[in-house]
Amino acid sequence: MKIVFATNNAHKLREVQQTVGDKFEIVSLRECGVVEDIPENEPTLEGNALAKARYIYSRTGLSCFADDTGLEVDALGGEPGVRSARYATDGHDDEANKRLLLERMEGKENRGAQFRTAMALILDGEEYLFEGVVRGKILTKECGNGGFGYDPLFAPEGHSESFAEMSAEEKNAISHRGRAVRKLAEFLNNR
Ligand code: IMP
Fold this sequence. Notes:
The chain is α/β, with parallel strands linked by helices. 31% of the residues lie in helices and 25% in strands.
């Protein structure tokens, strides 16, 4: 059975296909003919994930899933959260986002934070939500060159190194997205 994942990122597609196994064929947005930008204007991660999945379902009629991720920092009341990509500017400027986060965290003793992924699935017209969370802390300076986004500033619980200092496999085994994808895969494979 074909199922659309709301991305064109080859790396994410391969990773999800490996986790889900061969019972489902994971198809990109482009492959199912959705080439326009999908609006992401909802106030929550769940809202955005569901809105994206509903958009694809209404355009294609195919079963599909979509994710949205945010970094939620305790001392900042959950910011940047749903605005993680556009924290400092309207564009996706990772460098500016990290700088702003460090600035807002200056002098804060509570460095607790979490990455949270909301995953929305529409399967045969029914809607489902899955969540993946990893707790950790915001470092006082950038560490490591791997990963993307806020990775150099986030050390997951039980680890002294940042996500940017881990291999892709190590990160995937504990990350928010890895957890959400494994829940989705388990659900699909138990159908
Ligand atoms: P998206 O929903 O996967 O597009 O993520 C939204 C934003 O959250 C990204 O632009 C990044 O700034 C941040 N983000 C999401 N996942 C990660 C991650 O695994 N590491 C670091 N930053 C992330």
